[in-house]
Amino acid sequence: MANWPQVSIDTEKEFNMCFACGQKNPIGLKLNFDWDGKSARAEFTPNKFHQGWSGLVHGGIISCLLDEAMSYVTLFEGVNSLTAKMQTRFRRPAQIDEPLIITASLTKKTRKLVEAKAEISLKDSTLVADSTATMFILNQREERPKSNV
Fold this sequence. Notes:
12% helix, 149 residues, 1 helix, Thiol Ester Dehydrase, Chain A
């Protein structure tokens, strides 16, 4: 991460315009994560605006859902982070208008890095995709969210 550009990241920003979780972003996914003390969870039903091939959810949207879930785990654990590395396995195509369950949990935390895992499944627990990520810790959060930030 030594070659990362020096950029200012406002970690005290309003989350309303985030593409994944911003509730006021007119083209966003409007995800709302809950926390049970160990894992983050959200539900999302993709529609025709989220497709790649006709009737199938675009892989970039699937990756975005997984990335956001793992980011929320760090928020709930009290740190702001940036994804440094992410590996995703697509297990089966997801169809538009098919409800998805997104879950994530922390697997490791060091002084500078957090590792997390996430899954997307159907309501019947059929696995759609899973992912792991290493995230760079920017700073500690002053306040931990109880639910959606």
